[in-house]
Amino acid sequence: MSINILGIESSCDETAAAIVRDGREILSNIIATQIPWHKEYGGVVPEIASRKHLEFIVPVIKKALKEANISLDELDGIAVTYGPGLVGGLLVGLSAAKALAYSRNLPLIGVNHIEGHIYANFLAYPQLKPPLICLTVSGGHTTLLAITKLGSYEILGQTRDDAAGEAYDKISRVLGLGYPGGPAIEKAAKEGSTSYIFPKALADELDFSFSGLKTAVINLVHNAEQKEEKLNVYDLAASFQAAVIEVLVEKTIRAAKLKQVKNVLLSGGVASNEALRTALNKACQKEGLTLYYPPKILCTDNAAMIACTGYYRFLEGERAAWDLNADPRLGF
Q1: Domains 4-118+299-315 and 129-294 fall in the same CATH topology
Q2: 16, 165, 207, 232: least buried by Cβ within 10 Å?
Q3: Where are the domains of the chain?
């Protein structure tokens, strides 16, 4: 008998709902983006995000059910992101999930947003099995994990300050390239060369630090402005991106060797970056490793990955209590 899970995601600036059958088959995956409302501010404004989630959440859920041709009576459980993320947005999704689950007497499953990104790979590649090394790179997180079994993780490295995606957004704003920063810098980098050399922190560790790199770029730009010197924005974008990717790739390969793992996963919003995919794939092939990453629609925030994660939690008998609360700083 099939198991249908409704997933709900509202941790940042996408309101999303999806129906996933048996943890593998995506029946619907609806995403309402808020980029047009945040673009003029150069980043996500939490208050605006919360209000847009309130506006979008019910229509998005209805559309997910309609597209999947599934009624509420045919659902077996509801999975929802409860952290980490912006607390206002999390509360909107969590409240909607609780209301539906309670009214229909359905199991409620709380999902860690970062774990959801990891499980996007299992939607794309159902045959994947631990042990695995996973690099998760997003706007708020940069984490290197060893997956010993489904649902069991060893943190090998994580950011001590800015996440890679956060650094992309800030540098894009400084360079005047717009929001969201990841795609903007990636596009500009294609037109430039790596003519600037920037620092790389924590060379001997598996933890990450991008604040020094961010500061170096900002200082270079500000100093040039004071001296009325003209900088090549495209070269700056290419050099910044190359510095980020070099660190991500080098530490991921080192982690795989350390744990003697042959399969490597890439997940998170920054996993849609073609330059990162290419560089990491090339490094993996050189070391006899196999790299997996989801299609781009499953890299950025979406609810299918939440439903998939919820399915495996459902099989393990996990159920959230009705007092489940949003946890904006939820970790592993």
Answers
A1: yes
A2: 232
A3: 4-118+299-315, 129-294
Strand order in the sheet with 152-158: 152-158, 142-149, 132-137, 263-267, 290-292
Q: What is the pLDDT of residues 3-39, one digit of tens each?
A: 999 999 999 999 999 999 999 999 999 999 998 999 8
Distances (CA, A) of 192 to 186, 246, 272: 10, 17, 20
Task: Give the CATH number of domain 129-294; options: 3.40.630.30, 3.30.420.40, 3.30.413.10, 3.40.50.1110.
Answer: 3.30.420.40
How far apart are alpha carbons 216 and 198 in whole angstroms? 7
Distance of alpha carbon 142 from alpha carbon 131, whole angstroms = 20
- 3-class DSSP assignment, residue 181: helix
Burial of 226 from C-beta contacts in 10 A (0-12 / 13-18 / 19+): exposed
Nearest alpha-carbon partner for 270 in 44, 83, 114:
114
E strand segments, 75-141: 77-83, 108-112, 132-137
Query: Residue 162 and residue 209: Cα distance in Å, rounded?
Result: 7
Q: Please state which of the four CATH numbers 3.40.50.2300, 3.30.260.10, 3.30.420.40, 3.90.226.10 is assigned to the domain occupying 4-118+299-315.
A: 3.30.420.40
Between vectors from CA 114 to CA 93 and to CA 85, what angle results, nearest 5°? Answer: 45
Q: What share of the chain is helix, strand, coil (3-state, %, to 5)?
A: 50, 20, 30
What integer is the mean pLDDT of 212-239? 95
